[in-house]
From TrEMBL:
Keywords: Membrane, Transmembrane, Transmembrane helix
Residue ranges occupied by any EamA domain in the UniProt entry: 9-141, 151-275
Pfam family, one: EamA
Lineage: Bacteria, Pseudomonadati, Pseudomonadota, Gammaproteobacteria, Pseudomonadales
Cellular-component GO terms for this entry: membrane
Transmembrane segments: 35-57, 77-94, 100-118, 125-141, 147-167, 179-197, 203-227, 239-259, 265-283
Name of this chain's protein: DMT family transporter
Organism, scientific name: Denitrificimonas caeni
């Protein structure tokens, strides 16, 4: 049986990646409540970059730096760094599940940008799904609610950066190796944050927290590798619904680690965003199949 005929493997890999990413966000939330944001994210990028050098440089050598679209790689790296700063910064104020759900607006924003910027065909059903998905945010961030604060703009802006990141990654996939894209983004993030590090760090860190900081890079890199591997076993359209499992994992991590339980309206908003994203994925797959 070929790898493309084992969709269950792909589903399991996506679910594992979602669990790792939710765990990564939970550890980030814990650390940024104690240590400077720049320091935490810098260590995450540094560890990821160093681990990738040990894993891939012996085989790829300097090819790992080869790109045919350096400017797109730069924009991708800036987008990824912006996501990290905005989303993890927002986790200091926003519960994990709600922040993750807002981040999952990205597929809906990708649909809008695909139509407005790339002039791709978007069906009426997709437009309805996008509109309903944005209404889901209102249930999470409602006037008078606990999350109706300027802090919610951090994960919301991060979702726009994530949409740009996804569009650029899609374009780079046809010309550059996935390892190259991930390595260059990690390297850029490490160098950029190193410039911001003076005055944004402390050496008074217990051994346990040092372990958590080192774990961040490993969790992020492993999750992205699992997502890449999943596409070898199944199509992106098949795997898309299961990527929303990350919201459930985020809710579990938030509940047990931070005693943060979404209220009924927030859960409704999460469900609306998730269903809208699934509808967009289904309609896009159906449209591509017809073409």
């Amino acid at each position: 049986m070929s790898t493309s005929q084992r969709p269950l493997y792909g589903v399991l890999l996506v679910l594992c990646a979602g669990l790792l990413l939710a765990s990564h966000d939970g550890v980030s939330k814990y650390l940024t409540q104690i240590y400077p944001l720049i320091m935490v994210i810098w260590l995450r990028y540094l560890v990821q970059t160093v681990v990738m050098v040990f894993l891939f440089f012996p085989k790829m050598r300097w090819v790992i730096l080869h790109t045919r679209r350096p400017w797109l790689q730069l924009v991708r790296a800036i987008s990824l760094l912006s996501i990290s700063l905005l989303f993890i910064g927002g986790l200091r104020y926003i519960p994990l599940a709600e922040a993750t759900a807002v981040m999952f607006l990205a597929p809906l924003i990708v649909t809008v940008l695909s139509a407005l910027v790339l002039h791709e065909k978007v069906s009426t059903g997709q437009w309805w799904a996008v509109s309903i998905g944005f209404l889901g945010v209102i249930f999470i961030v409602r006037p008078g609610g606990e999350l109706f604060t300027p802090a919610i703009l951090l994960p919301f802006t991060a979702s726009f950066c994530f949409a740009i990141y996804q569009l650029i990654t899609r374009r780079l996939a046809s010309t550059d190796h996935a390892v190259t894209s991930n390595f260059l983004s990690g390297l850029f993030g490490t160098l950029a944050l190193t410039l911001l590090l003076p005055g944004e760090y402390t050496l008074a860190v217990p051994a346990l927290d040092i372990m958590f900081m080192l774990l961040l890079g490993v969790l992020a890199m492993t999750a992205h590798m699992l997502l890449t591997m999943a596409l070898k076993y199944s199509s992106a359209a098949t795997l898309a619904p299961f990527s929303y499992g990350q919201i459930i994992f985020a809710g579990i991590v938030g509940c047990f680690a931070f005693a943060q339980i979404p209220d009924a309206l927030a859960i409704l908003g999460v469900a609306i965003i998730s269903c809208s994203g699934l509808a967009v994925a289904y309609l896009q797959h159906h449209q591509q199949a017809e073409e």
